[in-house]
Write a structure and sequence with these properties.
Elements lengths: L11 H14 L2 H18 L3 H26 L5 H31 L6 H22 L5 H5 L1 H11 L1 H16 L7 E4 L2 E8 L3 E6 L4 E5 H6 L3 E3 L1 E2 L2 E2 L2 E10 L4 H13 L13 E7 L3 E10 L8 H15 L8 H7 L2 H20 L9 H9 L1 E6 L4 E3 L7 E7 L2 E7 L2 E8 L4 E2 L1 H6 L6 E4 L3 E7 H10 L3 H20 L4 H22 L6
Antiparallel strand pairs: 1-2, 1-5, 2-3, 3-4, 6-7, 8-10, 9-10, 11-18, 12-17, 13-16, 13-18, 14-15, 14-17
């Protein structure tokens, strides 16, 4: 027997029998099969990743403990009963987790139902409690003492953890009644943020400043929470308010009409078209009237400076109308000192003269006449996207473009086409002012634009002193009209020259007739 293999004496078969028996008794095979089924079904639904990770971890721990318990069982170690029971407990936790994951992460989403996550946690916790109690009873544990002292234990836990329990109950209430959902925009105190998560203990609000506010659920339940953009169960825009002050010299009717026209004339990014922006006379104050502009924010996700854009639109409209925002009396006296006022007037006069001097329409005028026209100019700023003139409107003024870029658009057969872009030194609406005919095109500011408005009366004073100016102006207008026609249709050089000559003669006659020069 000296040549026999010593491994034959190792109790190989009993060892594996004990190991397999252990794995069978703690249901390891069923646990692994259930995990695979859960991963396949729930991952296909692409949901509930947190529960999947938990189930996987507990299943893995169960397998490890089951293998160790099998080894202990084969060697008759005293630690085997404890490991055996622990492996069963982990199997129970994994089984309950799989069932909850399959129902709340696989079955219900396939049926179109999306219950709050906290509901699955409550059901899973209750089921796990019952299963573990049954497992303990089957293992021979006497639970009568636990049940007898449960009332005292509950009271102690309730007193020690009342705030935490309040948060837990509050989180459950928020999700069950769906008063607040993930994705809602809310105002909590002075903070406006988006609900990104509702946990057992807290609700997370992300603000537009890249901050996350953690609010305990107990506080949310106790305090007022304003849900933005929700009315009657249907999502609607969020109304915003911008206030301004205007001197009493300007009538409320004029101010309100001016503001509403400016806000509704052309779209403002992220401002809803319906309901339209509204201006109201809000209150009387010491030395000025207080107005409010109300608009509805269309997209809560990307509100980045919309109030500022509305204020710029309001400021430009007031500036074009010659209305200055009112200041409190003490501040107004401090700012309006004569020396500074004179400096501002000189700079403004120089800027207006420069704008007139580089405009083709007035290049042939003597400096004296150009300065007179410059004194008649009124500042008219426009923001990007605002309509400066609209095709078909009748107006007795033109614009001198001092800075910025504008788009000239013509509407034909219901379609609007861009025919040209103009920059500093250009004039807009000159044909309408010179002849009285409706605007031939719509002009839209492409950038923030500074214009000066020249009224008919200021130009007429110069024209009456120099009637020959009508011919110079007509020549420029005729050429500009020919260039515009050239953009609309393909004309050869001879046709363009003939049309320019005919147009110039007709325009001279119309200008002289419109301004009554032939009557003198």
């Amino acid at each position: 027997m000296s040549g026999a293999n010593p491994l034959v004496h190792w109790p190989t078969v009993p060892f594996f029998h004990a190991l397999l028996a252990e794995l069978r008794e703690v249901h390891t095979g069923w646990a692994v099969a259930g995990l695979i089924l859960t991963l396949v079904l729930v991952k296909r639904a692409r949901s509930d990743g947190r529960r999947l990770r938990t189930v996987t971890v507990f299943t893995g721990l169960h397998v490890v403990l089951a293998l160790i318990a099998g080894v202990m069982r084969a060697t008759d170690a005293r630690a085997w009963p404890t490991l055996h029971l622990t492996a069963q407990a982990f199997a129970a936790v994994a089984a309950v987790g799989m069932a909850i994951t399959l129902v709340f992460g696989g079955l219900l989403p396939r049926l179109g139902l999306r219950p709050p996550r906290i509901l699955g946690d409550v059901v899973g916790g209750a089921a796990l409690f019952v299963v573990l109690l049954g497992l303990a009873a089957s293992a021979g544990f006497d639970l009568s003492g636990v049940i007898a002292t449960s009332a005292v234990l509950t009271a102690v836990i309730g007193l020690a953890l009342q705030d935490t329990l309040g948060n837990l109950v509050g989180g459950l209430a928020l999700q069950l009644d769906k008063s607040v959902s993930v994705g809602d925009w809310v105002r909590y105190g002075e903070v406006v943020g988006k609900v990104t998560d509702i946990r057992w203990r807290y609700t997370a609000l992300e603000t537009r400043n890249w901050e996350t506010l953690i609010v305990p659920n107990g506080q949310l339940v106790k305090n007022n929470l304003l849900v933005l953009g929700r009315r009657g169960g249907a999502p609607t825009p969020w109304r915003r308010t911008v206030t301004l002050n205007v001197d009493y010299r300007h009538t409320p009717q004029r101010v309100i009409a001016l503001l509403e026209e400016a806000l509704r004339a052309s779209p403002i990014a992220r401002v809803a078209a319906t309901p339209p922006p509204q201006a109201i006379f809000q209150d009387f104050a010491d030395g000025y009237a207080r107005y409010a502009v109300r608009y509805w924010l269309a997209d809560l996700e990307v509100d980045d400076g919309t109030d500022s854009e509305v204020r710029l639109r309001v400021y430009n409209a007031l500036e074009r109308a010659g209305i200055e925002p009112a200041l409190p009396g003490a501040t107004r006296l401090l700012v309006r000192d004569e020396e500074r006022r004179e400096e501002e007037m000189q700079r403004d006069r120089a800027a207006r003269f420069a704008a007139i001097s580089r405009t083709e329409l007035f290049l042939g005028l003597p400096e004296e006449d150009r300065r007179e026209l410059a004194d008649g100019l009124r500042l008219a700023p426009y923001g990007a996207g605002e309509v400066i003139t609209r095709q078909g409107d009748v107006a007795s003024w033109l614009f001198v473009l001092a800075s910025g870029e504008v788009s000239v658009r013509v509407e034909a057969e219901g379609l609007e086409h861009e025919v040209s872009r103009l920059g500093p030194g250009s004039i807009l609406g000159e044909m309408a002012m010179m002849t009285g005919e409706p605007r031939a095109a719509t002009v839209v500011a492409l950038t923030d634009t500074v214009c000066y408005r020249l009224d008919r009366a200021a130009f007429e004073a110069v024209l009456r002193r120099r009637p020959q100016l009508a011919e110079d102006v007509a020549a420029v207008l005729a050429r500009r009209r020919a260039e515009l026609d050239d953009l609309r249709e393909d004309l050869d050089a001879l046709a363009r020259e003939r049309r320019t000559t005919e147009s110039e003669g007709a325009l001279v006659s119309r200008i002289r007739q419109f301004f009554g020069l032939d009557e003198n």
